[in-house]
């Protein structure tokens, strides 16, 4: 049985690796060959990597254009590989720019297509118009997304949000302490934009900082960057592969916008969102009028400002310092934010999404065998 996965950005690589691990745990002796496009996590899970996507992850069309040749190379490698040997099950995770094209190539080559966390699934008014045509099954992290997709003619499922299961399995019960969690981003451009302003804002704080280091960086690299900015902070900690532990231990956090904001909320860690992009990308967003009301996932999903977002010129050291002090202090602001996190946690369903997705994968593979389809 062949399973080909295509994961783009670091968050997709984590989900892909977890799908592989959960399918293996439930496979009961089935012989399944995993391969695909991914990075370190998918490789560690035992999949054969035919193209490394660790450099993928763009903000805006300018960065998409800069990564065009890498994305094109990954797409061409996938197309070539999908035409080799017997087709099987193609699993795509997010990254619509490349994966929607790979979905078409897979269908043309006889593969069944399962799309996990499809692009734009957070939208409540619409979903990707090509998804029903390009997929056999869809697993989406939001209930409204499944409802819209099914009305469009897709076969879509909502099992809850996968991050809930990742947190449950990866951290468990951890006593909250007095550290400050710092999640400065997973892209090099984010680190370069945000780390200096975070250092300016809070380096005088007496609490210990714990940095949750993204898979795209090493702990030593992050430590070196930080100590160049704050040589007096040698006691701060730089932790890889334990983001949820960092967030659950922390009294509060300073979080770069992205998946980390949802992770922080579901870990119950009060935080402030900071984000800066280059002037070129900022200009692009105004030109194409792509300036959203909110950028952090908790605010988008709840439709109201439950966490403070400090973006671009608002992300000053003074505002970051003031906002962090608000969430650190016992009081109404912190209490309201924590209550909103509990509401969001309930809203996102059961912590079994990865297990249920793995069951669906096995069902699809068994169905292909029963129907004499090549797997």
Describe this structure in words.
The chain is an alpha/beta fold and 375 residues long. Helices cover 48% and strands 17% of the residues. The chain is built from 17 helices and 13 strands. It has helices spanning 10-26, 40-44, 60-66, 68-82, 96-108, 131-134, 143-151, 162-170, 188-202, 219-229, 243-249, 259-266, 279-287, 297-302, 317-328, 332-347, 353-370; strands at residues 2-7, 33-38, 48-52, 89-93, 112-116, 137-139, 156-157, 179-183, 209-213, 237-240, 250-256, 271-275, 308-311. The strands form 2 sheets. A 7-stranded parallel beta sheet has the order 3-2-1-4-5-6-7, sandwiched between helices. Strands 10-9-8-11-12-13 form a 6-stranded parallel beta sheet, with helices on both faces. β11 (250-256), α12 and β12 form a beta-alpha-beta unit. The longest helix has 18 residues, at 353-370. Mean pLDDT is 90; it is low at 280-289.
Q: Tell me about the biggest sheet? A: 7 strands, parallel
- Indicate the mean pLDDT: 90
The structural class is alpha/beta
What is the helical fraction, as a range of percent? 40-55%
- Enumerate how many helices there are, as a single number: 17
**Succession of helices and strands:** EHEHEHHEHEHEHEHEHEHEHEHEHHEHHH
Strand order of the largest sheet: 3-2-1-4-5-6-7
* DSSP strand count: 13
Report, as a whole number of angstroms, the end-to-end distance: 5 Å
Strand content: 15-25%
Shape, principal axes of CA atoms:
globular
In angstroms, what is the radius of gyration? 21 Å
Low-pLDDT parts are 280-289
Oligomeric state of the chains in view: single chain
